[in-house]
Amino acid sequence: MKKMTILVVDDSAINTRQVKGLLSNKYNVLTATTGEEALGIVFSSTTIDLILLDVIMPGMDGYEVCDTIKADEKTKNIPIIFLTGMTDSEEETKGFEKGGVDYITKPVNPPVLLARVTAHLALANQNNILEELVHKRTEELNKALNNLKTTKVIEGVFWIQVPEAGVNILCGCPADIVKHLMLRGYIHEEIKDGITFESGPNVILLSDVLIQNGCFSNLAEFPVLQMLYRQGMMLPNHPNNSGAKPIIVGSKEQVEAQLDYIYRGNYGLVSEKELKEVGATEAESSMMMFLKNKFAFGKIKKSEEFIDSVIVEEKKVEIKNGVYVKRIGFNKYEFEFKDKTTTVDLNLKADVTYDSPYTLGFHDIQREYFAVIHSGEGDGWDLQRQSMSSILIYQGDIYLIDAPPSISHTLKSFGIDVSEIKGIFHTHAHDDHFAGLPALMKSDHRIKYFSTPLVRASV
Predict the structure, then answer these.
(1) Is this prediction's pTM over 0.85?
(2) In whole angstroms, how far apart are CA 451 and each of 391, 436, 442, 448?
(3) At what angle do helices 35-42 and 62-71 cross, to 10 degrees?
């Protein structure tokens, strides 16, 4: 059994040697002759189980040392026994008021010292055990109370927490949903083994329909990328890489569509053959595949290799660790864990669209002969602004460069109606440049589409 450690603090070397001689057979005994030296030991990495502290010392006296120890959260529970040659009852009372657990007069009586040290160490150990039990039980109760805790994130999107099962479910995943989760604190920074990474969902429930009210309802690529890379679930040797995979839940049609979308969103065209078919040269195809394979840690994988999926019908199915789900209506689902249930409805009302995570002002732009307005300067993770995009004006006609999330919100802030848009120049098919395309279907005419052959083929 590991020996407990006692710190003896006394400015008299004779006293410290005497006490150390009495205790060293049963305990590890450290000594200090000043208050400052004692605090240096207490606040080092050494674990101190009990302190025998002289009251009257040059410099910091015992009471000042005690005050400093009791003021720190990490050391406040160390039991302190005061040693003193004074027999004044007021001094004894003062010692207890400072937080001491006992008071022993000098010269010490060896049997009394041993008995009191043994008793207070046993009491402190019992208190620590009880405190740990209370802490553990409180954690268990909190988990039980928070299981299936359901919160509305935005219209048509919910967040379900099942801490006891280690499951966080994002119900619905329209564009920019990762930003919404970050703004609400469901995604936050954590540190493990010196590595900083993010928390977040590990399960995504898909909508039964791909598009609602002119907006994509299912864009699982960015949430999955957040899990794989920003949470570290896919990174080699990452402390958060336990081998568990993100899980996508929903109808067979929507799950298969999202797995294919994530595959193409991550990699675009996936072979030299595909690249050559749309016009890339031999050298270009070779270089592109080299870069893609480098990004993919050596091999382009199908989505099924790093994402698990659960197909949901009317009968309940297990997602993970005793968490079950079943469809109870169109776009309506019920979750179950132990004896608790919760339901979510992912349907949007006819006059509702998904909220934008950022606010924009209003601007009156002139229809110039030629002008470029940068309507988004952020990246896909930037909380403060739209994703990278621009508006091009040529001979008074309006063209878009990319179609980022919340594009209707952006156009409205510039006083532009979707029917004014003549064409779109599409740079690439990643989520944050692709998500706004369905909004363009509201135009009263066909919008011209411009892109390179590689981007067109990927889209």
Answers:
(1) no
(2) 16, 16, 21, 10
(3) 20
Which tokens in the block code for residue 271? 């072979």
Asked if residue 46 has pLDDT above 90, the reply is no
DSSP 391-404: EEEETTEEEEE---
For residue 348 the two structure tokens come to 């949007």
Confidence of residue 108 (pLDDT cuts 50, 70, 90): confident
Helix (H) / strand (E) containing 103: strand 102-105
- Give the integer Cα–Cα distance in Å for 58 and 12: 11
pLDDT band at 142 (very low <50, low <70, confident <90, very high): low
State how beta strands 28-32 and 80-84 pair. Answer: unpaired
Whether residue 107 has a cis bond before it, omega within 30° of 0: yes
Amino acid at 123: L
**From its phi and psi, is residue 185 left (phi > 0), alpha (psi between -120 and 50) or beta?**
left
> Tokens representing 454?
């590689």
pLDDT on residue 42: 92
With a pLDDT cut of 70, the percent of the chain lying above it is: 97
162 within 8 A of 323, measured Cβ to Cβ: yes
The first and second tokens of residue 134, run together, are 């209370």
The residues with which 202 forms a beta bridge, in sequence order, are: none
Q: Which phi and psi (to 5°) does residue 385 adopt?
A: -155, 170
